[in-house]
């Protein structure tokens, strides 16, 4: 019978809160400085709108993001403790042979697609007038988001999304290295998409990358126009469901 120690789980939880907050402050802070606080001529990225985010909105983005850290850390800590007790589908050790590497790629792709699918549909439900105010209005205080908005969710939205990937890791085998890569992709994707600037070169955005992947040009439009462009990593579901509104072209 699998058992986890509640005191150890609490210690892991506190450690994770600190790690998640530190990761957020360092990465969002660095991007905010690089894009918004330097002389515009030095920035090698394209500004997406002429809107200037107010201090008040940035303070709100930071406040919600710090609260979200407490919520995201809970399923993460429980998963870590179950993993230590040998009860998850997370595996480690050297990867060998074609099958080992092929499965690594397939499982990582599957996690991204599952996360994208879950995000797209819960996001659409949260935009329904009945649920919007309680779940998603906080995130949309940012008409022109900054990197600080990358984690700014109402507590209810954070609760809806935080458990999903840890739950997957109980059932779908994934290498611990792939987990770390996925966490990095998740963080960078969230920060880049809320940056307010397009950091990828124009030819990438106009090529296959911009047609398949979600970047700031796509998600910024979700914040400025409010309707459409609901996806997280891929434009797939928006295109299938007819909610893809194209890209913000920049100033
Ligand atoms: Zn939204
Ligand atoms: Zn957003």
Can I get a quick summary?
With 251 residues, the chain is mainly α. The protein has helices spanning 6-37, 55-84, 97-126, 129-135, 155-162, 164-171, 176-193, 202-206, 208-212, 216-225, 236-240; strands spanning 46-47, 90-91, 174-175, 197-198.
Describe the protein's architecture and organization:
- The protein has 251 residues and is mainly α.
- The protein has one domain (6-199).
- It has eleven helices and four strands; from the N terminus they run H-E-H-E-H-H-H-H-E-H-E-H-H-H-H.
- It has helices at 6-37, 55-84, 97-126, 129-135, 155-162, 164-171, 176-193, 202-206, 208-212, 216-225, 236-240, and strands at 46-47, 90-91, 174-175, 197-198.
- It has a two-stranded antiparallel sheet. It has a two-stranded parallel ribbon with strand order 2-3.
- Helix 1 runs antiparallel to helix 2, helix 1 (6-37) runs parallel beside helix 7 (176-193) and helix 2 runs parallel beside helix 5 (155-162).
- It is globular and about 60 Å long.
- The mean pLDDT is 96.
- Bound molecules: zinc ion (2 copies).
- Residues 123, 127, 136, 140, 222 line the site of one zinc ion.
Averaged pLDDT, please? Answer: 96
State the domain count.
Answer: 1
Question: How many H/I helical runs?
Answer: 11
Distance, first to last CA: 60 Å
Give the overall form: globular
Main beta sheet, described? 2 strands, antiparallel
Low-pLDDT residue spans: none
The small-molecule ligands in this entry are: zinc ion
What is the rounded Rg? Answer: 19 Å
Number of strands: 4
Helical content band: 55-70%
Strand content: under 5%
**Secondary-structure-derived class:** mainly alpha
């Amino acid at each position: 019978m699998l058992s986890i120690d509640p005191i150890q789980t609490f210690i892991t939880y506190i450690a994770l809160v600190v790690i998640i907050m530190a990761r957020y402050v360092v990465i969002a802070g660095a991007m905010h400085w690089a894009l918004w606080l330097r002389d515009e001529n030095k920035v090698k990225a394209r500004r997406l709108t002429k809107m200037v985010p107010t201090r008040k909105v940035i303070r709100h983005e930071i406040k919600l993001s710090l609260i979200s850290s407490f919520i995201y850390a809970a399923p993460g800590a429980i998963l870590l403790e179950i993993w230590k007790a040998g009860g998850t589908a997370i595996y480690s050790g050297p990867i060998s042979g074609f099958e080992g590497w092929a499965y690594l790629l397939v499982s990582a792709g599957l996690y991204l697609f599952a996360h994208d699918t879950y995000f797209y549909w819960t996001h659409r439900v949260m935009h329904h007038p009945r649920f919007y105010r309680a779940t998603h209005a906080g995130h949309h205080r940012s008409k022109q988001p900054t990197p600080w908005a990358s984690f700014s969710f109402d507590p209810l939205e954070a609760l809806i999304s935080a458990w999903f990937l840890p739950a997957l890791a109980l059932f779908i085998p994934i290498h611990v290295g792939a987990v770390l890569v996925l966490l990095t992709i998740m963080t960078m994707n969230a920060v880049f998409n809320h940056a307010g600037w397009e950091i990828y070169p124009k030819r990438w955005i106009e090529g296959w990358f911009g047609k398949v992947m979600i970047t700031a040009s796509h998600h910024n439009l979700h914040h400025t126009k409010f309707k459409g462009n609901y996806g997280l990593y891929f434009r797939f579901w928006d295109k299938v469901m007819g909610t893809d509104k194209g890209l913000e072209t920049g100033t």
